[in-house]
Amino acid sequence: MHEQENELSQQIIGAAIAVHRELGPGLLESAYEACLEFELLQRKITVERQVPQSVIYKGVKLECGYRLDLLIENLVIVELKTVEQFTPIHDAQLLTYLKLRRLWLGLLINFNVPILKQGIKRLVNG
User: Fold this and answer.
1) 81 φ, ψ (degrees, to nearest 5)
2) What does the alpha-carbon distance between residue 125 and residue 102 come to, in Å, rounded to a whole number?
3) How many domains does one find in the chain?
4) pLDDT, tens only, 75-113
């Protein structure tokens, strides 16, 4: 049912691993974001950076300053981090974005790890 998202997530993870191998840990989140966008575009994958996300409250669309780090093929949200470890607030943020966008799959990627596989978390909406 979610074959396209699963295949896309594998491609995103592959691109993120390539970026991490090249740069290693220790840079700002914005650097990884720019490099991952570049890597995905090189692979002919559609990506949007810093996508505004509004909230609908009582039927009114409100801009609250939310921004998705990366929106891939309008199917997968990627939130990038450079933290010691993920916390519940990181999960909550991504799950909220998935619900607001009515999307199924999101990836949390923490570049502040020795091996990137240790810093990847898949979250699904519903």
Assistant:
1) -135, 155
2) 8
3) 1
4) 999 999 999 999 999 999 999 999 989 999 999 999 999
Question: Distance from first CA to last CA of the chain, Å, rounded?
Answer: 14
CATH code, domain carrying 103? 3.40.1350
Residue 80 to residue 119: CA distance in whole angstroms: 10
Assess whether pLDDT exceeds 90 at residue 63: no
Where do we find the tokens 């990366």? 70
Both tokens of residue 85?
A: 């470890």
Instruction: Give the DSSP letter of residue 74.
Output: T
The burial class, CB within 10 Å (0-12 / 13-18 / 19+), for 26 is exposed
Q: What is the pTM of this model?
A: 0.90
Quote the tokens at residue 30: 């914005």
